[in-house]
Amino acid sequence: MSYFRNLLVEKKMQLIEEKNQILNAIHSIDTKINNETYENFEQDNRNKGVPLLFVPILSCPYCQSGLSLQNASILGNQIFEGNLFCSCGYQSEIKKGILFTSNLKASPFKYSIYEIDLKKWNPNFISLLEKSKLWMYNELTQQLIENKIVLETNIEISMMLPTYLSSLSKKNTSYIFTCYSLEWIKTLKQSIEKLHPDLSVLYIVNSDLHLPLTHHSIDIFIDSISFSQYSLIYKESPVQILKQYLKNNSCIIGNAVFYEANSKSLKNIQSIYPTPNLKAFQPYFLEEELQNHHFTISSKEIAGFTKNPGSYFSYHDENEKMNLLAYRAAHSISK
């Protein structure tokens, strides 16, 4: 029996290796496809609007009242143009199938890092990110995502979901992507519509985590270093803001950057950025944030570290390790 058990274990390891090779091949193909330049966005008749199925979860991010839709242009089950109003004064609008919020900290025409700044990232750091995203993907495949809503924010910094859409189960799964770069989200929108025309997706141009969505409407949140990036710019807790949108049985799958305690890079962050979170990039910042807001890390892995992430990371001290953590956290309801 021991001999046959060892045979099965060996076969299992071979299958896992084959699976990873296939996923890497799919990822490589998707990357090439997503990097193509798509022109004539506005004239492409495959463009879609905001699916009507998202309307019930559109709410004011401040008072949570439902948003009224006016001056709408609707074709079939898609909203292409329209104005969204709340009685408290909040406004947003839909233009060419993309939802624009009124709380933009930066110009929506600002470039994405994929256009310029990614050249300043060291290939070693990019490899670490891709390794952690593959871990995130494997964790996501363990979740039941059918009939669920999956949210990924701040995709102008880093993104995971679009790369793996081809190999994810898409039956009745809805996706929401947010980004402050209009050009980048337009490019992503056309790419997804070309490759996955039947997918239900809501695209939002937005700067922060205050989203025009109903509380407790999101099943899965993908954190592709968005919490880390948010903590560089805002003092407020990213988990505290986000948890309002997550259901009680939701989960967060993500990756995060951290330094060792008392490192020079941590001090540089506090001096370079005008209003960072005081615990930004500290070793236990993420775990403490999640615990404080009733999330428990159920699995995690250190993807690795680099001493040279690239010139884009102006706060990094070349003698220190920038670490990358991949994790999955489940919402734990307190009694």
Structural write-up:
The protein is of the alpha/beta class. It has two domains: 50-100, no CATH class; 117-331, Vaccinia Virus protein VP39 (Rossmann fold), CATH 3.40.50. It is 30% helix and 25% strand. The chain contains eight helices and twelve strands. It has helices at residues 2-34, 123-140, 161-164, 182-195, 226-233, 238-242, 264-272, 285-292, and strands spanning 50-51, 68-75, 78-85, 91-95, 98-100, 149-152, 174-179, 200-205, 218-224, 246-258, 295-306, 322-331. Strands 1, 2, 3, 4, 5, 6, 7, 8, 9, 10, 11 and 12 form a twelve-stranded mixed beta sheet that branches. The longest helix is centred in the first third of the chain and has 33 residues, at 2-34. The radius of gyration is 20 Å and the shape is globular.
| Beta fraction | 25-35%
Low-confidence stretches: 37-45
Round the Cα radius of gyration to an integer and report it: 20 Å
- Secondary structure category: alpha/beta
Compose a concise summary of this entry.
By secondary structure, this protein is α/β, with parallel strands linked by helices.
Write the layout of secondary structure elements.
Blueprint: H1 2-34, E1 50-51, E2 68-75, E3 78-85, E4 91-95, E5 98-100, H2 123-140, E6 149-152, H3 161-164, E7 174-179, H4 182-195, E8 200-205, E9 218-224, H5 226-233, H6 238-242, E10 246-258, H7 264-272, H8 285-292, E11 295-306, E12 322-331
Parallel strand pairs: 5-8, 6-7, 6-9, 7-8, 9-10
Antiparallel strand pairs: 1-3, 2-3, 3-4, 4-5, 10-12, 11-12
